Amino acid sequence: MRTSRLFIVLALAPGLVGFSTSAQAETRNFELYGKIYTKWLYRNNDNAGVLSLGNPFWPDNMSGDNGVATEFELNIKGRVGDNVQAGVRIKSRFGALWQDWWENGDIRYDAENTSGESLGMNRAQYMKLRGYWIQAALPIPFVDNVLVGSSDLGMFNEWTIGKVRYIDRDNGKGIFVQGAFDEDLLRFHAAIIALPKLWVGPQWSTGVGDPLVRLPFYSQDWAYGLKLESDPYDGVKITAIGTATVDSEVDMTDPDAVGSDNASCTDELGNAIPGCERDGAVDWTNRYTNVVGTLETQIDTWDGGSFNVLLGASYQSINPDVTGNGVLLNNGVYPLVYDPDMFGAFARVRAELYDIADDTSLKFEYFNIGQHFQTIFGARREVDVLLTDGFIEGGQVATLNSANEFVDFDEAYYETVIGWHGATAILEYQSDLELSLEGTFLTYNTNAQNRDVDEKYPDFLHTDGFTDTDLYDYANVYDRGRDPRSVFRRNQDRMSAIAVLKGLWHTDLGNGLDVGLKTKFIWDSDKRSDTTDIDDYLGLMSMTRLWLTYPAADGLSLTVGGQFDYWKEDNRRGTIEQGYGDDTTTKVRPWLALAYTFDGFTLKYQFEYFYKDAQRERDDDRLFHVIRSKASLEVGW
Amino acid sequence: MKKFLTGSMTLLMVLYGGMALAGTTIEFSDPKGDDDGPGKYTYPTDAVYTPGSFDLTNVELEDAGDKVKVTVTVKAKIEDPWDSKAWDGNGFSVQMFVIHIDTDHKAGSGHKDGLPGFNVTFADDQLWDKALVISPQGKTRVQAEVTAKAAAMKKDILIPTSVSVRGRKVVATFNKSDLGGDLSKSWGYQVLVQSNEGFPDKTDFLTRKVNEFGGQHRFGGGSDYDCDPHVMDLIAGKAQGEGSEKSEQHKMLGTFKCNADGSGTRAVLQMVYPEG
User: Fold this and answer.
1) Mutation choice for B interface testing from A4, A6, A24, A145 by most B CBs within 10 A
2) CB neighbour list of residue B3: distance below 8 Å, 6 or more residues apart
3) pLDDT confidence tier of residue B8, bands split at 50, 70 and 90
């Protein structure tokens, strides 16, 4: 902080001698942090833009595979008083290509032209106030501090109100109170959080765009959270979290509401409606309510291991009068089960035994996630709620509301675990040679016959086939397999097994060559309809990756690697009426990577060739030769 | 009788040989509840800094053939809230530990200043000769930071060949050859607990700052200037985990002086010598 102050003072000093005192006074209390981030993205296709996968629903003009763009952010923090501080984050809009010289955001034409006024604000690099907060240690008994404004919502957990993804880290706004009645026995964190109008709710909305909501009223949509923590014994920690997410709308039966159904308080025959009377006030009605609670016990009293028990329950209420049925209206692409009154629960138990032999540990996890467990505000990505490596690389989330958009080809994907029931065991050896062997077996609480996926359970349209995240697209034009959110199927009788071997050998060769290996095998069986066996699915997927990383110089590491996948899927895709096909998929992906850090200059680069050969019995075969690369350069000061 | 004596001698030789081959193990304990630096430091307010995260309870250095295995234990379970594997890290996020070793116990021999950002110095007759850095950051990042910010100390800063997390423990392995010899109980040791800062100040070695008023990612209870020690916990006294070591820590870290203009003198640390 001292450096920043000095920098500002020195920067303002030349030529301002007469004002130096006041200039210092004005900047002394400013702590500044700036960052410039530049990304290059290239691929052998004809798609211009600088984000591999952008907005799936409202296509933006910044998504694409070929481009370079830069953003700048400025963080300002200051002391208001001895116990109060405040800060803001100002950041430029990302998406303008270096070639977009004169785009000014003043969109006056509906097509690209030579005016510089056609691409809109996405290409204008305008500075936006992204976050603002005030933190105060107020003299209130038992209260340590109060935060008003932006937060990443990381104080609760993935199952209730989840930490928002990194790029959204300042978008959540609320009032947060943190304190303790006793530092060991009872700490608390309470919050009231403004609901994001275009995410937390049915159809990813708190009313906007819902066909049954004429006048969206999202300014009174809030989430409430309370976390209580206690360390009753040394090494024992108990955490209880309760959250409620409430989406309200105007009660259109209230005669005072604009556009009310009962504005005149008479029915269609002209008769007075009993109890209907204008009173100058407008009532609200709940559109959607989701209550989630978890109780977690972490036990670390024994040097030989640790234990964790996490239990949770949820309740959701949908008001059908003001909530369109997105399962029906949107082909099953909907972030919740359309059940007006639904309870759900889950349990997860973990045990970790350290040093069962020299440098060897064993982890075990049992999980049982109810098919009706519902958390609309749970973490959408950048978390991992289960130990297993899972089906796709990335992590597992506990919500159907997972987010796999606004990502580049090299970023992780997240799959939902709703309905998963099984266990994982992982044997780990950690020394200069790191080895881990995972075995997971699971079946599904979502197994059912003749499930209503027309009006109640969302199936996300694409329910079949192993998911290919290397070549993912929203509309599934590449036949990329099951949507990572698709856990409900009309007919399902599924069980799966996952085996993973990971190795990383830190050798003494040269400056310390690392040799890495990861191989995964998945057995996935789904008998689907119990009336026939012609639709029985059996997938045998293997994925093997080998890489070498070498620290070529201080701050410079080079990686070369390759991956080979072979998937054999019987009855991958089809219908009972039209038949199913046996498909095989072969993928090869050699890559090069570089990471360089020097004096605050951080460069990353990845180049890969991606070959995919999908032999499809019922459809045309698909062949892909993709060359793509991504680089990023970041400096902060 | 002769057979008995012969057998006994053989057994003694085997046992002695085994003892001679067994590596030295050096262990330090630290009392709980002293993760407050010189006495008034507070944790940042963000939820990732769980109570006890920086409360050192035990350190063990073990001679393991051509390696030295270091196990650091803190009060709370070590978590990885920032997914360190995504940035080539070591399986944890928040903490950072540095073990300073005085191998010769000679006045004027070694480094007086701690690593940049810790804002500490060592007593004149207890200068450190080797510093073992256990950071969540991967080897490449740590090497780059050493080169950029501690170049004069570079040859004496050791980076582990492997790091793993086991509950409340972090286990790191170092090449013994980099240490310059077998572990010795005649050496002096000092273990500093800090927090990993991925975006450190330009002169700080991956350290999180301590301010007068704590923030979301800043410790509180210190000074806004860099005259105060940026250390949350260390070993003190005889490092046997006795309650009195808490006040000895406070006294040691409290030897700094901050003037109104930010100048001052830094805290002077003492090593712990297992053999006294």
Assistant:
1) A145
2) none
3) low
pLDDT digits (tens, 9 = 90+) for A154-167: 999 999 999 999 99
- On the CB side of A361, CA atoms within 13 Å amount to 19
Is B140 within 8 Å of A637 when comparing Cβ atoms? no
Q: Regarding the domain delimited by B23-269, which CATH topology (the fold level of the hierarchy) does it fall under? A: Immunoglobulin-like (2.60.40)
Task: Look at phi and psi of residue A352 and say left if phi exceeds 0, alpha if psi is from -120 to 50, else beta.
Answer: beta
Q: Cα(A472)–Cα(A201) distance, rounded to whole angstroms?
A: 25
Determine whether the interchain pair A1/B201 forms a contact, defined as Cβ–Cβ distance below 8 Å: yes
Whether A178 contacts chain B with CB within 8 A: yes
Other beta carbons less than 10 A from residue B4's beta carbon: 8
Which tens digits make up the pLDDT trace of A305-323? 999 999 999 999 999 999 9
b/e sequence B190-228, b meaning 16+ C-beta within 10 Å? bbbbbbbbbebbeebbbbbbbbbbbbbbbbbbbbbbbbb
A525, β-bridge pairs: A495, A538
d(CA A168, CA A382): 12
**CB interface of B with A, residues 56-75, below 8 Å:** 67
The pLDDT value recorded for residue A9 is 39
Beta-strand relationship, B120-122 and B267-269: parallel
B96: its two tokens: 């950072």
* Paired strand residues for A305: A302, A353
Angle between helices A2-12 and A20-27 (to 10 degrees): 150
Residue A170 has pLDDT above 70, yes or no: yes
Q: What residue type is B221 in one-letter code?
A: G
Report the C-alpha gap between A587 and A83 in whole angstroms. 58
- For chain B, domain boundaries: 23-269
Q: Is the pLDDT of residue B1 over 70?
A: no
Give CA–CA dist A361/A435, Å, rounded.
11
Do the interacting molecules here have an ipTM over 0.90? no
More confident residue, A277 or B10: A277
pTM for the model stands at: 0.91
Q: Which of A261-265, B10-14, B41-45, B125-129 is least confident?
A: B10-14
With an 8 Å Cβ cutoff, is A556 touching chain B? yes
Position A24 pLDDT exceeds 70 = no
Distance from CA of A186 to the nearest CA of B (A): 12
Q: Please compute the mean of the pLDDT values over residues A68-97 and round it to a whole number.
A: 94
**Biggest CA pair distance of chain B:** 82
Percent of chain B clearing pLDDT 90 (strictly above): 78
Q: Which residues contact A141 (CB under 8 A, 6 or more apart)?
A: none
pLDDT 10s digits, B167-225: 999 999 999 999 988 999 999 999 999 999 998 988 899 999 999 888 889 999 999 88
Of A154, A430, A506, the CB nearest to B46: A154
- Mean pLDDT of the A461-479 span: 93
Closest residue by Cα to residue A166 from A375, A383, A386, A483: A383
Interface check A135 vs B, CB under 8 A: yes
Tell me whether strands B157-158 and B130-134 are parallel, antiparallel or unpaired: parallel
Q: Rounded to an integer, what distance in angstroms lies between the CA atom of residue A559 and that of residue A592? A: 6
Torsion angle of C-alpha atoms A600, B161, B209, A131, degrees rounded to 10: 60
